[in-house]
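[recover] target loaded
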């Protein structure tokens, strides 16, 4: 059953939202930020339910006895919202990588009419950073003159990706990466997998349910094997080979940040393999990492991890992926190149 009760590992944002709901001070526009797979959409759905549940929503928080934000999960409103069929709860998501102005205009038309049955209409705009400037400006007009009985919830990786004038009119609520144990608990609950497998997938997922599910499905493990092979080849690559690898990763438009995180945790494991193998993240690959670690110098690994983190920061700030990855791979190849046998290190 959806609702705030089912959100694991996001205590702070959930507390903020339930308080706003209980006090009746929910702003008309919210911006949920955080990486993919940390519960932003689930929380948006929970807000829609809390605003419209026919049994619990109305009295929630009034006498202090009812947990605020509580929903029954069973009434007609709750069921329709959970199924995505409530006529007053709209979902907008990028189409072909972009949210265009037509969609926002159509939304304005919808909000110009009275609600069909809801107390509060909820519009969820996923990946708000993919609104083109025309769409963002059309939305801005709506935020300046908010339609009655309406809550707009935007989601984005980070506020910096969204037009500042839009951000300034929203109450921002951040969803951090989910702690490893919480993530494992979610996998056990939602995928019914055994706790050990869940713990393993959670350790490789960087706090994201989406990535943890990919890891568990094997897709992530295949990706990791491929990345590991590329990493092993990196010091021997020609400059042209490094540029080609950067182009390949940038062109695939996959989860580049997730890829870099896998490489970073792999190198971190190599750095600690000798001293505290029990803390390794890629515990299933312990032997291979310990073998690889012999060829790495500690300071070189530290340098490589710094370079990876710097690249992730640049990508988050919308730097050109291909150029960022080119510079990164050239640095990594330099750091991880084994020193000549006579230069004792
Ligand atoms: Zn209900």
């Amino acid at each position: 059953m959806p609702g705030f009760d089912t959100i694991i590992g996001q205590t702070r944002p959930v507390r903020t939202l339930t308080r706003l709901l209980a006090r009746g001070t929910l702003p008309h526009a919210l911006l949920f930020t955080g990486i993919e797979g940390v519960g932003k959409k689930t929380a948006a759905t929970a807000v829609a339910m809390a605003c419209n549940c026919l049994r619990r929503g109305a009295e929630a928080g009034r006498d202090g006895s009812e947990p605020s934000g509580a929903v029954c999960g069973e009434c007609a409103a709750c069921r329709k919202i959970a199924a995505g069929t409530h006529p007053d709860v709209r979902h907008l998501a990028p189409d072909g990588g972009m949210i265009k102005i037509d969609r926002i205009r159509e939304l304005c038309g919808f909000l110009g009419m009275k609600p069909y049955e809801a107390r509060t209409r909820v519009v969820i705009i996923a990946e708000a950073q993919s609104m083109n400037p025309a769409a963002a400006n059309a939305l801005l007009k709506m935020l300046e003159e908010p339609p009655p009985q309406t809550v707009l919830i935007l989601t984005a990786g980070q506020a910096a990706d969204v037009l500042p004038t839009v951000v300034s009119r929203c109450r921002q609520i951040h969803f951090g990466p989910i702690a490893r144990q919480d993530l494992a608990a979610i996998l056990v609950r939602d995928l019914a997998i055994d706790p050990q497998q869940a713990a393993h997938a959670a350790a490789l997922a960087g706090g994201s349910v989406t990535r943890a599910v990919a890891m568990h499905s094997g897709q992530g493990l295949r990706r990791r094997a491929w990345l590991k092979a590329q990493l092993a080849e990196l010091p021997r690559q020609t400059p042209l080979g490094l540029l080609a690898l950067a182009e390949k990763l940038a062109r695939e438009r996959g989860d580049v940040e997730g890829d870099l995180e896998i490489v970073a945790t792999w190198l971190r494991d190599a750095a600690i393999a000798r001293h505290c193998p029990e803390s390794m993240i890629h515990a299933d690959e312990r032997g291979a990492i310990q073998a690889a670690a012999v060829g790495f110098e500690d300071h070189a690994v530290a340098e490589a991890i710094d370079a990876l983190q710097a690249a992730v920061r640049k990508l988050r700030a919308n730097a050109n992926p291909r150029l960022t990855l080119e510079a990164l791979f050239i640095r990594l190849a330099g750091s991880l190149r084994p020193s000549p046998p006579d230069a004792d290190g």
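[recover] notes: Residues 200 and 280 are 11 Å apart (CA to CA).
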